[in-house]
Design a protein that fits this description.
Length: 220
């Protein structure tokens, strides 16, 4: 993909708190301190001649419905050449901490509307990352259900994301499987402390897979 991206292109990172990662709470961290910052830093270092530009518009707590509401202002109006999206875990999480579920059908319809909007109004390449979960929190710690039970809600949404990636010919990054594999090598807490928000090692894992999908690296 890197070879098909024009010089001075804008790369937009979109999503929830995993993408936000401190951006909205610290004016000096325009890209946050997570994977978006790591990707931007590596791309700049590896391809300074392309003079790529980067924006992070992830907002903590967002669901697909929130993304849709701000999509014109926070995506279309910015005219990015590459749109990277990581969304979906809050559509699952709110069922268990707020009794506010998002149905699979609603999730799919709204996500499809977002992607259709990109196709109709931009000539942008799309990178889609599936939401992920490492079940480190037990039911006894105050959740309505332990994170191992979240799978009944999350897995169907992950399948939706995979299907939409095929439908819209997007570059797809299977983060749920990638984190599951990483957790067979080192403990889950190495990658995320609460099952959802990555540690710095977890963010580096996302950034590495993003750069591979972008065609920048084969091994790193």
């Amino acid at each position: 993909m890197i070879n098909n991206v024009k010089d001075n292109s804008l790369i937009l990172f979109q999503g929830d708190s995993v993408t936000d990662c401190g951006r909205t709470s610290n004016e000096y961290l325009e890209l946050g301190f997570g994977y978006a910052n790591m990707v931007a830093s590596w791309l700049t270092a590896l391809h300074p001649e392309k003079q790529l530009r980067f924006l992070n518009r992830g907002i903590s707590g967002n669901r697909v419905s929130d993304l849709k509401k701000r999509w014109q202002e926070d995506c279309i109006d910015l005219r990015p050449e590459v749109v990277s999206i990581l969304i979906g875990i809050n559509d699952c999480w709110r069922r268990y901490d707020s009794n506010d579920p998002t149905s699979v059908d609603s999730f799919e319809i709204t996500y499809r509307q977002i992607l259709t909007n990109i196709k109709q109004k931009l000539e942008a390449k799309i990178i889609i990352m599936e939401p992920f979960l490492l079940p480190v929190i037990e039911e006894s710690e105050g959740w309505s259900a332990g994170q191992d039970k979240w799978r009944e809600d999350l897995d169907p949404k992950i399948h939706v994301v995979r299907s939409l990636a095929r439908e819209f010919n997007a570059e797809f990054i299977p983060l749920d499987g990638i984190f599951a594999r990483a957790a067979t090598i080192q403990p889950m807490e190495k990658w995320t402390l609460d099952g959802v928000h990555p540690t710095q090692a977890g963010h580096a894992l996302i950034a590495r897979q993003w750069l591979k999908a972008f065609g920048v690296i084969e091994k790193m």
